[in-house]
Design goal:
Chain lengths: ~300, ~280
Protein backbone atom coordinates (compact mmCIF):
# COMPACT_ATOMS: atom_id res chain seq x y z
CA UNK A 1 0.00 0.00 0.00
CA UNK A 2 1.31 3.43 -0.98
CA UNK A 3 0.27 6.71 0.55
CA UNK A 4 0.16 10.19 -0.96
CA UNK A 5 -0.39 13.30 1.15
CA UNK A 6 -1.47 16.56 -0.44
CA UNK A 7 -0.49 19.62 1.57
CA UNK A 8 -0.12 23.31 0.89
CA UNK A 9 1.40 25.05 3.84
CA UNK A 10 -1.85 27.00 4.05
CA UNK A 11 -5.54 26.51 3.45
CA UNK A 12 -7.48 27.79 0.48
CA UNK A 13 -5.02 26.77 -2.24
CA UNK A 14 -7.34 24.25 -3.83
CA UNK A 15 -6.07 21.19 -2.01
CA UNK A 16 -9.50 19.71 -1.50
CA UNK A 17 -10.53 20.42 -5.09
CA UNK A 18 -7.44 18.56 -6.26
CA UNK A 19 -7.86 15.64 -3.85
CA UNK A 20 -11.47 15.25 -4.96
CA UNK A 21 -10.39 15.34 -8.62
CA UNK A 22 -7.75 12.67 -7.98
CA UNK A 23 -10.30 10.51 -6.24
CA UNK A 24 -12.43 10.43 -9.36
CA UNK A 25 -9.40 9.45 -11.46
CA UNK A 26 -7.75 6.88 -9.28
CA UNK A 27 -9.00 3.38 -8.93
CA UNK A 28 -8.53 1.23 -5.90
CA UNK A 29 -8.01 4.14 -3.57
CA UNK A 30 -8.98 5.03 -0.03
CA UNK A 31 -9.48 8.69 0.77
CA UNK A 32 -8.36 10.10 4.08
CA UNK A 33 -9.62 13.58 4.86
CA UNK A 34 -7.08 14.73 7.43
CA UNK A 35 -8.18 18.34 7.41
CA UNK A 36 -10.08 17.53 10.59
CA UNK A 37 -10.48 21.16 11.68
CA UNK A 38 -12.59 22.00 8.66
CA UNK A 39 -13.31 18.90 6.70
CA UNK A 40 -14.57 19.93 3.26
CA UNK A 41 -14.10 16.83 1.14
CA UNK A 42 -17.47 15.38 2.26
CA UNK A 43 -19.19 18.42 0.74
CA UNK A 44 -18.25 17.15 -2.72
CA UNK A 45 -18.10 13.42 -2.17
CA UNK A 46 -21.31 13.05 -0.15
CA UNK A 47 -20.14 10.06 1.88
CA UNK A 48 -22.52 7.40 3.19
CA UNK A 49 -21.49 6.85 6.77
CA UNK A 50 -20.65 3.27 7.72
CA UNK A 51 -19.33 3.71 11.22
CA UNK A 52 -18.38 6.45 13.65
CA UNK A 53 -16.25 6.24 16.73
CA UNK A 54 -15.52 8.80 19.44
CA UNK A 55 -12.01 10.09 19.74
CA UNK A 56 -10.94 10.76 23.28
CA UNK A 57 -8.80 13.83 23.55
CA UNK A 58 -6.95 15.32 26.45
CA UNK A 59 -8.56 14.67 29.79
CA UNK A 60 -10.13 17.45 31.76
CA UNK A 61 -9.63 18.24 35.44
CA UNK A 62 -12.65 18.54 37.65
CA UNK A 63 -12.71 19.83 41.22
CA UNK A 64 -15.09 18.42 43.78
CA UNK A 65 -16.11 21.61 45.55
CA UNK A 66 -17.41 19.64 48.53
CA UNK A 67 -13.87 18.49 49.28
CA UNK A 68 -12.03 21.62 48.20
CA UNK A 69 -10.87 23.93 50.99
CA UNK A 70 -9.84 26.69 48.63
CA UNK A 71 -6.17 26.56 49.59
CA UNK A 72 -5.20 27.64 46.07
CA UNK A 73 -2.35 25.18 45.53
CA UNK A 74 -3.86 23.91 42.29
CA UNK A 75 -4.19 27.44 40.92
CA UNK A 76 -0.58 28.12 41.72
CA UNK A 77 0.78 24.93 40.24
CA UNK A 78 -1.27 24.81 37.04
CA UNK A 79 1.03 26.10 34.30
CA UNK A 80 -1.83 26.61 31.87
CA UNK A 81 -3.92 28.97 33.97
CA UNK A 82 -6.84 26.56 33.79
CA UNK A 83 -8.04 26.76 37.39
CA UNK A 84 -10.32 29.77 37.70
CA UNK A 85 -10.71 31.92 40.78
CA UNK A 86 -13.84 30.12 41.93
CA UNK A 87 -12.01 26.77 41.61
CA UNK A 88 -13.78 25.61 38.52
CA UNK A 89 -11.80 24.54 35.47
CA UNK A 90 -11.64 26.43 32.19
CA UNK A 91 -12.07 23.56 29.73
CA UNK A 92 -10.39 25.52 26.93
CA UNK A 93 -7.19 25.97 28.92
CA UNK A 94 -6.89 22.66 30.73
CA UNK A 95 -4.36 20.36 29.09
CA UNK A 96 -5.19 17.39 31.27
CA UNK A 97 -1.66 17.20 32.60
CA UNK A 98 -2.89 15.89 35.99
CA UNK A 99 -0.46 17.95 38.05
CA UNK A 100 -3.33 19.41 40.07
CA UNK A 101 -4.61 15.95 40.94
CA UNK A 102 -1.36 15.05 42.67
CA UNK A 103 -0.81 18.49 44.13
CA UNK A 104 -4.16 18.85 45.86
CA UNK A 105 -3.83 17.97 49.55
CA UNK A 106 -7.54 17.16 49.82
CA UNK A 107 -7.73 14.83 46.81
CA UNK A 108 -10.45 17.05 45.48
CA UNK A 109 -9.36 16.97 41.83
CA UNK A 110 -9.89 14.16 39.39
CA UNK A 111 -9.49 13.84 35.66
CA UNK A 112 -12.46 13.15 33.42
CA UNK A 113 -12.27 11.72 29.94
CA UNK A 114 -13.49 14.05 27.23
CA UNK A 115 -14.54 13.42 23.69
CA UNK A 116 -12.71 15.62 21.21
CA UNK A 117 -14.33 14.42 18.02
CA UNK A 118 -15.45 11.52 15.90
CA UNK A 119 -13.66 9.37 13.39
CA UNK A 120 -15.93 8.28 10.57
CA UNK A 121 -15.63 5.60 7.91
CA UNK A 122 -17.77 6.06 4.86
CA UNK A 123 -18.28 4.93 1.36
CA UNK A 124 -18.35 7.45 -1.49
CA UNK A 125 -18.98 7.14 -5.21
CA UNK A 126 -15.20 6.86 -5.62
CA UNK A 127 -14.48 4.34 -2.92
CA UNK A 128 -14.06 4.17 0.83
CA UNK A 129 -13.17 7.22 2.84
CA UNK A 130 -11.98 7.93 6.38
CA UNK A 131 -12.70 11.34 7.81
CA UNK A 132 -13.40 13.06 11.09
CA UNK A 133 -15.28 15.72 12.89
CA UNK A 134 -13.41 17.70 15.50
CA UNK A 135 -15.46 19.29 18.25
CA UNK A 136 -15.21 23.06 18.52
CA UNK A 137 -12.25 24.22 20.52
CA UNK A 138 -10.64 20.83 20.84
CA UNK A 139 -6.93 20.64 20.30
CA UNK A 140 -6.27 16.95 19.85
CA UNK A 141 -6.29 17.30 16.10
CA UNK A 142 -2.90 15.57 15.70
CA UNK A 143 -4.35 12.59 17.48
CA UNK A 144 -7.51 12.71 15.39
CA UNK A 145 -5.40 12.82 12.22
CA UNK A 146 -3.60 9.70 13.41
CA UNK A 147 -6.92 7.99 14.00
CA UNK A 148 -8.15 8.93 10.53
CA UNK A 149 -5.00 7.53 9.00
CA UNK A 150 -5.29 4.33 10.98
CA UNK A 151 -8.88 3.99 9.87
CA UNK A 152 -7.84 4.59 6.25
CA UNK A 153 -5.30 1.78 6.54
CA UNK A 154 -7.97 -0.57 7.87
CA UNK A 155 -10.28 0.36 5.02
CA UNK A 156 -7.50 -0.12 2.49
CA UNK A 157 -6.90 -3.54 3.92
CA UNK A 158 -10.52 -4.53 3.92
CA UNK A 159 -11.19 -3.34 0.39
CA UNK A 160 -7.75 -4.34 -0.95
CA UNK A 161 -6.87 -0.86 -2.08
CA UNK A 162 -3.58 0.09 -3.62
CA UNK A 163 -3.35 3.76 -2.65
CA UNK A 164 -4.33 6.06 0.18
CA UNK A 165 -4.94 9.67 -0.78
CA UNK A 166 -4.57 12.04 2.15
CA UNK A 167 -6.10 15.51 2.02
CA UNK A 168 -3.76 17.23 4.44
CA UNK A 169 -4.51 19.90 7.02
CA UNK A 170 -3.29 23.45 6.48
CA UNK A 171 -0.23 24.88 8.18
CA UNK A 172 2.96 23.20 9.26
CA UNK A 173 1.97 22.32 12.82
CA UNK A 174 1.36 19.04 14.52
CA UNK A 175 -1.70 17.94 12.48
CA UNK A 176 0.36 18.29 9.29
CA UNK A 177 3.23 16.35 10.80
CA UNK A 178 0.76 13.64 11.75
CA UNK A 179 -0.64 13.66 8.21
CA UNK A 180 2.66 13.25 6.38
CA UNK A 181 4.77 10.96 8.57
CA UNK A 182 5.19 7.57 6.98
CA UNK A 183 3.72 8.56 3.61
CA UNK A 184 5.50 7.62 0.40
CA UNK A 185 5.05 10.88 -1.44
CA UNK A 186 3.93 14.40 -0.61
CA UNK A 187 2.43 16.73 -3.19
CA UNK A 188 2.78 20.36 -2.19
CA UNK A 189 0.30 22.67 -3.82
CA UNK A 190 1.39 26.26 -4.18
CA UNK A 191 0.05 29.57 -5.45
CA UNK A 192 2.08 32.21 -7.29
CA UNK A 193 1.81 34.84 -4.59
CA UNK A 194 4.37 36.24 -2.20
CA UNK A 195 2.79 34.37 0.66
CA UNK A 196 2.35 31.26 -1.50
CA UNK A 197 6.10 31.00 -2.04
CA UNK A 198 6.75 31.60 1.64
CA UNK A 199 4.27 28.88 2.65
CA UNK A 200 5.79 26.51 0.09
CA UNK A 201 9.20 26.99 1.68
CA UNK A 202 7.82 26.22 5.13
CA UNK A 203 6.08 23.10 3.83
CA UNK A 204 9.27 21.91 2.10
CA UNK A 205 11.25 22.42 5.28
CA UNK A 206 8.87 20.00 6.90
CA UNK A 207 9.00 17.30 4.21
CA UNK A 208 12.79 17.64 4.10
CA UNK A 209 12.88 17.27 7.87
CA UNK A 210 10.92 14.02 7.65
CA UNK A 211 12.80 12.91 4.51
CA UNK A 212 9.72 12.29 2.42
CA UNK A 213 9.94 12.39 -1.38
CA UNK A 214 8.18 15.54 -2.50
CA UNK A 215 6.68 16.89 -5.70
CA UNK A 216 5.00 20.22 -6.34
CA UNK A 217 2.22 21.76 -8.38
CA UNK A 218 1.26 25.41 -8.90
CA UNK A 219 -2.40 26.38 -8.85
CA UNK A 220 -3.61 29.55 -10.62
CA UNK A 221 -0.13 29.93 -12.15
CA UNK A 222 -1.39 32.62 -14.53
CA UNK A 223 -2.48 35.17 -11.91
CA UNK A 224 1.19 36.11 -11.61
CA UNK A 225 3.50 34.41 -14.08
CA UNK A 226 6.59 36.14 -12.72
CA UNK A 227 5.95 34.63 -9.29
CA UNK A 228 5.27 31.27 -10.96
CA UNK A 229 8.73 31.40 -12.51
CA UNK A 230 10.17 32.19 -9.11
CA UNK A 231 8.44 29.18 -7.61
CA UNK A 232 9.67 27.06 -10.47
CA UNK A 233 13.24 28.24 -9.84
CA UNK A 234 12.88 27.53 -6.15
CA UNK A 235 11.63 23.99 -6.84
CA UNK A 236 14.54 23.33 -9.19
CA UNK A 237 17.03 24.47 -6.59
CA UNK A 238 15.37 22.44 -3.85
CA UNK A 239 15.35 19.37 -6.06
CA UNK A 240 11.58 19.07 -6.20
CA UNK A 241 9.94 18.06 -9.48
CA UNK A 242 7.28 20.60 -10.44
CA UNK A 243 4.69 18.33 -12.02
CA UNK A 244 1.99 20.70 -13.17
CA UNK A 245 0.82 24.28 -13.49
CA UNK A 246 -2.95 24.73 -13.25
CA UNK A 247 -4.52 27.90 -14.67
CA UNK A 248 -6.90 30.16 -12.79
CA UNK A 249 -10.35 28.80 -13.55
CA UNK A 250 -13.81 29.72 -12.35
CA UNK A 251 -14.92 26.18 -13.14
CA UNK A 252 -13.41 24.95 -9.88
CA UNK A 253 -16.05 27.01 -8.06
CA UNK A 254 -18.74 26.00 -10.55
CA UNK A 255 -17.95 22.33 -10.01
CA UNK A 256 -18.02 22.88 -6.26
CA UNK A 257 -21.45 24.51 -6.51
CA UNK A 258 -22.65 21.38 -8.34
CA UNK A 259 -21.07 19.17 -5.68
CA UNK A 260 -18.95 17.53 -8.33
CA UNK A 261 -15.25 17.03 -8.88
CA UNK A 262 -13.78 19.06 -11.75
CA UNK A 263 -13.31 15.80 -13.64
CA UNK A 264 -17.01 14.98 -13.40
CA UNK A 265 -17.95 18.54 -14.22
CA UNK A 266 -15.74 18.57 -17.31
CA UNK A 267 -17.26 15.31 -18.52
CA UNK A 268 -20.80 16.69 -18.83
CA UNK A 269 -20.57 20.49 -18.95
CA UNK A 270 -18.97 20.56 -22.39
CA UNK A 271 -17.08 23.65 -21.20
CA UNK A 272 -13.80 23.83 -23.10
CA UNK A 273 -11.97 25.45 -20.21
CA UNK A 274 -13.16 22.68 -17.91
CA UNK A 275 -12.02 19.95 -20.27
CA UNK A 276 -8.56 21.51 -20.56
CA UNK A 277 -8.32 21.89 -16.82
CA UNK A 278 -9.39 18.29 -16.27
CA UNK A 279 -6.77 17.08 -18.72
CA UNK A 280 -3.98 18.80 -16.83
CA UNK A 281 -5.13 17.12 -13.65
CA UNK A 282 -5.35 13.81 -15.48
CA UNK A 283 -1.71 14.10 -16.58
CA UNK A 284 -0.68 15.18 -13.10
CA UNK A 285 -2.36 12.14 -11.58
CA UNK A 286 -0.70 9.86 -14.15
CA UNK A 287 2.71 11.28 -13.15
CA UNK A 288 1.94 10.83 -9.49
CA UNK A 289 0.68 7.31 -9.96
CA UNK A 290 3.95 6.33 -11.60
CA UNK A 291 5.96 7.81 -8.74
CA UNK A 292 3.73 6.27 -6.13
CA UNK A 293 3.98 2.84 -7.69
CA UNK A 294 7.73 3.01 -8.09
CA UNK A 295 9.30 1.85 -4.86
CA UNK A 296 12.89 2.11 -6.05
CA UNK A 297 13.44 5.89 -6.20
CA UNK A 298 13.59 6.66 -2.53
CA UNK A 299 16.25 9.34 -2.48
CA UNK A 300 14.52 12.36 -3.93
CA UNK A 301 14.01 14.23 -0.71
CA UNK A 302 13.98 17.98 -1.05
CA UNK A 303 16.99 19.90 0.16
CA UNK A 304 16.50 22.44 2.88
CA UNK A 305 17.56 25.74 1.40
CA UNK A 306 17.03 28.53 3.89
CA UNK A 307 16.06 27.61 7.38
CA UNK A 308 14.03 30.70 8.14
CA UNK A 309 12.63 33.31 5.80
CA UNK A 310 11.33 36.60 7.17
CA UNK B 1 -10.73 47.66 21.56
CA UNK B 2 -9.36 44.39 20.20
CA UNK B 3 -10.65 43.21 16.85
CA UNK B 4 -9.82 39.66 15.78
CA UNK B 5 -9.87 38.86 12.08
CA UNK B 6 -10.71 35.19 11.74
CA UNK B 7 -12.05 32.55 9.37
CA UNK B 8 -12.70 28.84 9.69
CA UNK B 9 -9.85 28.19 7.36
CA UNK B 10 -6.83 29.76 5.75
CA UNK B 11 -6.87 31.21 2.27
CA UNK B 12 -10.10 33.16 2.62
CA UNK B 13 -8.35 36.50 2.71
CA UNK B 14 -7.95 36.94 6.46
CA UNK B 15 -4.46 38.36 6.19
CA UNK B 16 -5.47 40.66 3.33
CA UNK B 17 -8.30 42.08 5.41
CA UNK B 18 -6.15 42.46 8.53
CA UNK B 19 -3.31 44.21 6.71
CA UNK B 20 -5.44 46.55 4.61
CA UNK B 21 -7.68 47.36 7.56
CA UNK B 22 -4.70 48.26 9.74
CA UNK B 23 -3.10 50.38 7.00
CA UNK B 24 -6.35 52.25 6.37
CA UNK B 25 -6.67 53.42 9.98
CA UNK B 26 -4.61 55.85 11.99
CA UNK B 27 -2.91 54.94 15.20
CA UNK B 28 -3.72 51.24 15.43
CA UNK B 29 -1.64 48.19 16.19
CA UNK B 30 -1.50 45.01 14.14
CA UNK B 31 -0.71 41.62 15.65
CA UNK B 32 -0.12 38.60 13.44
CA UNK B 33 -1.10 35.63 15.59
CA UNK B 34 -0.91 33.05 12.83
CA UNK B 35 2.34 31.89 14.41
CA UNK B 36 2.67 28.80 12.23
CA UNK B 37 2.63 30.93 9.08
CA UNK B 38 2.88 34.61 9.89
CA UNK B 39 2.25 36.24 6.52
CA UNK B 40 1.32 39.83 7.34
CA UNK B 41 4.81 41.17 7.04
CA UNK B 42 5.13 39.80 3.53
CA UNK B 43 2.71 42.58 2.63
CA UNK B 44 4.13 45.18 4.97
CA UNK B 45 7.83 44.59 4.38
CA UNK B 46 8.88 46.14 7.70
CA UNK B 47 12.30 45.75 9.21
CA UNK B 48 11.78 43.49 12.20
CA UNK B 49 13.63 43.27 15.45
CA UNK B 50 13.37 40.48 18.01
CA UNK B 51 11.64 41.43 21.27
CA UNK B 52 11.20 38.17 23.10
CA UNK B 53 12.18 34.56 22.88
CA UNK B 54 9.26 32.30 23.82
CA UNK B 55 10.39 29.44 25.95
CA UNK B 56 8.89 26.31 27.32
CA UNK B 57 10.20 24.36 30.29
CA UNK B 58 11.33 20.80 29.87
CA UNK B 59 12.79 18.35 32.37
CA UNK B 60 16.39 17.31 32.55
CA UNK B 61 17.10 14.25 34.63
CA UNK B 62 20.19 14.08 36.75
CA UNK B 63 21.44 10.52 36.29
CA UNK B 64 23.44 10.64 39.53
CA UNK B 65 20.33 11.22 41.61
CA UNK B 66 17.78 9.25 39.58
CA UNK B 67 16.88 5.87 41.04
CA UNK B 68 15.03 4.81 37.89
CA UNK B 69 11.83 4.38 39.88
CA UNK B 70 9.83 5.36 36.78
CA UNK B 71 7.39 7.64 38.62
CA UNK B 72 7.99 10.48 36.21
CA UNK B 73 7.35 8.42 33.09
CA UNK B 74 4.23 6.90 34.65
CA UNK B 75 2.95 10.33 35.48
CA UNK B 76 3.53 12.05 32.15
CA UNK B 77 0.22 12.25 30.30
CA UNK B 78 1.82 13.04 26.99
CA UNK B 79 4.26 10.10 26.81
CA UNK B 80 7.13 12.53 26.71
CA UNK B 81 9.16 10.36 29.08
CA UNK B 82 10.02 6.70 28.65
CA UNK B 83 11.62 4.59 31.35
CA UNK B 84 14.34 2.39 29.86
CA UNK B 85 16.18 -0.16 32.00
CA UNK B 86 19.17 2.14 32.47
CA UNK B 87 17.89 5.60 31.75
CA UNK B 88 14.89 7.86 31.43
CA UNK B 89 14.42 9.12 27.89
CA UNK B 90 12.76 12.45 26.99
CA UNK B 91 10.96 13.23 23.73
CA UNK B 92 11.08 17.03 23.80
CA UNK B 93 8.48 17.66 21.12
CA UNK B 94 5.84 15.79 23.14
CA UNK B 95 6.54 17.61 26.41
CA UNK B 96 3.99 20.27 27.37
CA UNK B 97 6.14 21.67 30.14
CA UNK B 98 3.57 20.94 32.82
CA UNK B 99 6.16 20.38 35.52
CA UNK B 100 4.51 17.19 36.74
CA UNK B 101 7.59 15.01 36.50
CA UNK B 102 9.65 17.24 38.75
CA UNK B 103 6.72 17.36 41.16
CA UNK B 104 6.39 13.59 41.46
CA UNK B 105 10.08 12.68 41.52
CA UNK B 106 10.77 11.43 45.05
CA UNK B 107 14.48 12.28 45.01
CA UNK B 108 14.57 15.62 43.24
CA UNK B 109 16.38 14.27 40.22
CA UNK B 110 14.39 16.34 37.75
CA UNK B 111 15.63 19.79 36.98
CA UNK B 112 13.68 22.05 34.65
CA UNK B 113 15.42 23.87 31.86
CA UNK B 114 13.90 26.13 29.27
CA UNK B 115 14.11 25.74 25.54
CA UNK B 116 13.11 28.16 22.84
CA UNK B 117 9.95 27.25 20.94
CA UNK B 118 9.53 30.48 19.03
CA UNK B 119 10.17 34.16 18.83
CA UNK B 120 8.26 37.45 18.97
CA UNK B 121 9.35 40.20 16.62
CA UNK B 122 8.19 43.75 16.10
CA UNK B 123 8.51 46.38 13.43
CA UNK B 124 11.20 48.96 14.11
CA UNK B 125 9.94 52.19 15.66
CA UNK B 126 10.11 54.22 12.44
CA UNK B 127 7.57 51.92 10.77
CA UNK B 128 4.23 53.62 10.04
CA UNK B 129 2.36 50.99 12.03
CA UNK B 130 2.89 49.35 15.38
CA UNK B 131 3.28 45.73 14.27
CA UNK B 132 4.16 42.52 16.12
CA UNK B 133 4.23 38.90 15.05
CA UNK B 134 5.24 35.56 16.52
CA UNK B 135 6.92 32.63 14.83
CA UNK B 136 6.64 29.09 16.11
CA UNK B 137 9.76 27.04 15.38
CA UNK B 138 9.27 24.33 12.77
CA UNK B 139 8.50 21.00 14.40
CA UNK B 140 7.12 22.56 17.60
CA UNK B 141 3.50 22.03 18.60
CA UNK B 142 2.81 24.64 21.28
CA UNK B 143 1.39 27.45 19.14
CA UNK B 144 -0.81 28.70 21.96
CA UNK B 145 2.17 29.58 24.13
CA UNK B 146 3.64 31.78 21.43
CA UNK B 147 0.26 33.45 20.86
CA UNK B 148 -0.22 34.17 24.53
CA UNK B 149 3.24 35.75 24.75
CA UNK B 150 2.50 37.79 21.67
CA UNK B 151 -0.81 39.12 23.00
CA UNK B 152 0.93 40.38 26.11
CA UNK B 153 2.54 43.07 23.96
CA UNK B 154 -0.78 44.71 23.10
CA UNK B 155 -1.02 48.33 24.14
CA UNK B 156 -4.51 48.47 25.69
CA UNK B 157 -4.85 52.19 25.09
CA UNK B 158 -5.04 51.79 21.31
CA UNK B 159 -7.23 49.75 18.98
CA UNK B 160 -5.58 46.45 18.10
CA UNK B 161 -6.23 44.38 14.98
CA UNK B 162 -5.36 40.74 15.41
CA UNK B 163 -4.85 38.36 12.51
CA UNK B 164 -6.00 35.03 13.98
CA UNK B 165 -4.69 31.58 13.22
CA UNK B 166 -6.88 29.39 10.99
CA UNK B 167 -8.96 26.50 12.26
CA UNK B 168 -11.22 26.03 15.24
CA UNK B 169 -8.81 24.59 17.81
CA UNK B 170 -6.90 26.04 20.73
CA UNK B 171 -4.84 28.69 18.95
CA UNK B 172 -7.98 30.41 17.69
CA UNK B 173 -9.63 30.22 21.09
CA UNK B 174 -6.61 31.89 22.65
CA UNK B 175 -7.15 34.85 20.32
CA UNK B 176 -10.95 35.03 20.20
CA UNK B 177 -11.27 34.64 23.95
CA UNK B 178 -9.30 37.84 24.18
CA UNK B 179 -11.09 39.89 21.52
CA UNK B 180 -13.92 42.42 21.85
CA UNK B 181 -15.11 41.86 18.32
CA UNK B 182 -14.59 39.21 15.71
CA UNK B 183 -14.57 39.83 11.97
CA UNK B 184 -15.13 36.61 10.05
CA UNK B 185 -13.80 36.62 6.51
CA UNK B 186 -15.54 34.21 4.17
CA UNK B 187 -16.58 33.51 0.60
CA UNK B 188 -20.04 32.46 -0.45
CA UNK B 189 -19.21 29.01 -1.77
CA UNK B 190 -19.99 25.59 -0.28
CA UNK B 191 -16.51 25.30 1.27
CA UNK B 192 -16.51 28.90 2.40
CA UNK B 193 -19.92 28.64 4.02
CA UNK B 194 -19.09 25.37 5.76
CA UNK B 195 -15.87 26.79 7.24
CA UNK B 196 -17.65 30.00 8.16
CA UNK B 197 -20.22 28.07 10.21
CA UNK B 198 -17.43 26.34 12.13
CA UNK B 199 -15.74 29.64 12.94
CA UNK B 200 -19.06 31.16 13.92
CA UNK B 201 -19.60 28.34 16.39
CA UNK B 202 -16.30 29.14 18.10
CA UNK B 203 -17.10 32.85 18.30
CA UNK B 204 -20.55 32.08 19.70
CA UNK B 205 -19.13 29.68 22.28
CA UNK B 206 -16.84 32.45 23.46
CA UNK B 207 -19.62 35.06 23.29
CA UNK B 208 -17.70 37.42 21.02
CA UNK B 209 -19.87 39.60 18.76
CA UNK B 210 -19.39 38.80 15.08
CA UNK B 211 -19.53 40.61 11.74
CA UNK B 212 -18.75 39.33 8.28
CA UNK B 213 -16.49 40.41 5.46
CA UNK B 214 -17.51 38.78 2.19
CA UNK B 215 -14.42 38.15 0.15
CA UNK B 216 -14.41 37.40 -3.59
CA UNK B 217 -17.95 38.71 -3.62
CA UNK B 218 -19.70 37.74 -6.85
CA UNK B 219 -18.28 34.25 -6.85
CA UNK B 220 -20.58 31.46 -5.73
CA UNK B 221 -24.11 32.26 -4.58
CA UNK B 222 -25.94 34.11 -1.83
CA UNK B 223 -25.88 31.43 0.85
CA UNK B 224 -23.73 33.40 3.30
CA UNK B 225 -25.82 36.55 2.84
CA UNK B 226 -29.10 34.69 3.30
CA UNK B 227 -27.79 33.05 6.42
CA UNK B 228 -26.51 36.32 7.86
CA UNK B 229 -29.82 38.04 7.24
CA UNK B 230 -31.70 35.27 9.01
CA UNK B 231 -29.33 35.29 11.95
CA UNK B 232 -28.95 39.05 12.20
CA UNK B 233 -25.22 39.00 11.56
CA UNK B 234 -24.02 42.24 9.98
CA UNK B 235 -22.12 42.17 6.70
CA UNK B 236 -19.46 44.77 7.28
CA UNK B 237 -17.75 44.85 3.92
CA UNK B 238 -17.73 43.20 0.51
CA UNK B 239 -14.50 42.75 -1.37
CA UNK B 240 -15.30 41.90 -4.99
CA UNK B 241 -13.77 39.03 -6.95
CA UNK B 242 -11.52 41.46 -8.74
CA UNK B 243 -8.46 40.55 -10.82
CA UNK B 244 -6.70 43.78 -9.81
CA UNK B 245 -7.03 42.89 -6.11
CA UNK B 246 -5.88 39.32 -6.77
CA UNK B 247 -2.93 40.62 -8.77
CA UNK B 248 -1.85 43.10 -6.07
CA UNK B 249 -2.19 40.32 -3.51
CA UNK B 250 0.02 37.99 -5.55
CA UNK B 251 2.69 40.69 -5.65
CA UNK B 252 2.45 41.24 -1.94
CA UNK B 253 1.01 44.77 -2.24
CA UNK B 254 -1.81 45.78 0.13
CA UNK B 255 -4.58 47.02 -2.14
CA UNK B 256 -5.44 50.11 -0.04
CA UNK B 257 -2.08 51.46 -1.19
CA UNK B 258 -2.98 51.33 -4.89
CA UNK B 259 -6.74 51.80 -4.60
CA UNK B 260 -7.25 54.72 -2.20
CA UNK B 261 -11.05 54.49 -2.37
CA UNK B 262 -10.74 51.46 -0.10
CA UNK B 263 -9.27 53.48 2.73
CA UNK B 264 -12.65 55.06 3.36
CA UNK B 265 -14.46 51.72 3.21
CA UNK B 266 -12.22 50.33 5.91
CA UNK B 267 -12.67 53.46 8.02
CA UNK B 268 -16.43 53.02 7.74
CA UNK B 269 -16.08 49.40 8.75
CA UNK B 270 -14.15 50.48 11.81
CA UNK B 271 -16.90 52.93 12.78
CA UNK B 272 -19.51 50.19 12.37
CA UNK B 273 -17.52 47.78 14.50
CA UNK B 274 -17.10 50.36 17.25
CA UNK B 275 -20.85 50.91 17.32
CA UNK B 276 -21.66 47.21 17.25
CA UNK B 277 -19.14 46.22 19.92
CA UNK B 278 -20.48 49.02 22.10
CA UNK B 279 -24.04 47.87 21.54
CA UNK B 280 -23.30 44.27 22.42
CA UNK B 281 -21.49 45.15 25.62
CA UNK B 282 -24.41 47.45 26.45
CA UNK B 283 -26.90 44.62 26.09
CA UNK B 284 -25.06 42.17 28.29
S1 LIG C 1 -5.53 22.29 45.73
FE1 LIG C 1 -7.34 21.08 46.16
S2 LIG C 1 -8.14 21.92 48.03
FE2 LIG C 1 -6.66 23.38 47.25
S3 LIG C 1 -7.88 24.81 46.08
FE3 LIG C 1 -7.19 23.26 44.67
S4 LIG C 1 -8.81 21.74 44.64
FE4 LIG C 1 -9.16 23.00 46.41
S1 LIG D 1 -4.97 19.03 34.68
FE1 LIG D 1 -3.16 20.32 34.40
S2 LIG D 1 -3.92 21.91 33.02
FE2 LIG D 1 -5.72 20.93 33.84
S3 LIG D 1 -6.22 22.17 35.59
FE3 LIG D 1 -4.94 20.50 36.34
S4 LIG D 1 -2.90 21.35 36.34
FE4 LIG D 1 -4.13 22.69 35.08
S1 LIG E 1 7.02 18.42 32.14
FE1 LIG E 1 5.05 17.37 32.02
S2 LIG E 1 4.85 16.92 29.87
FE2 LIG E 1 7.00 17.38 30.20
S3 LIG E 1 7.92 15.43 30.57
FE3 LIG E 1 7.39 16.26 32.55
S4 LIG E 1 5.39 15.39 32.98
FE4 LIG E 1 5.75 15.10 30.80
S1 LIG F 1 10.81 10.04 39.18
FE1 LIG F 1 12.87 10.83 39.60
S2 LIG F 1 13.96 9.11 40.39
FE2 LIG F 1 12.14 8.28 39.47
S3 LIG F 1 12.76 7.76 37.40
FE3 LIG F 1 11.97 9.81 37.32
S4 LIG F 1 13.73 11.12 37.60
FE4 LIG F 1 14.34 9.10 38.23
Amino acid sequence: MRQLAIISGKGGCGKTTLTAAFSSLSENTVLADCDVDASDLPLILKPQVLKTEDCLGLELASIDLKLCTGCGICREICRFGAVLENFTINPYSCEGCAVCTVACPENAVSLMPRVSGQVISSITRFGPMAHAKLDTGEEASGKLVNMVRKRALELADRYSCKFILIDGPPGTGCPVMAAITGTDLVLVLSEPTVSGLHDLKRAIELTAHFRIPTVACINKYDINEKMSLEIEAFCREAGIPLLACLPYADITTEAMMEEETVIEYAAHSGDEEAVKFANIIRNLWAEIEIRLSDTSKKEMYPKILQSREP
Amino acid sequence: MKIAIASGKGGTGKTTVAVNFALALEDVQLFDCDVEEPNCNLFLGFELEPVEEVTCLFPEINPDKCTLCGNCADFCRYNALAALPKKILLFPSLCHGCGGCSFVCPVGAVEEKSRSIGIIEKASSDAPLKFFHGILNIGEAMATMVIKSLLRHIDESKPAIIDSPPGTACPVLAVLGFADYCVLVTESTPFGFHDFLLALKVAKALKVPVGVVLNRDGLGDSRVEDFCRDEGIPILLRIPNDRMIARLYSEGIPFVKEMPEWKEKFEDMFETIKALAFKSTGVQ
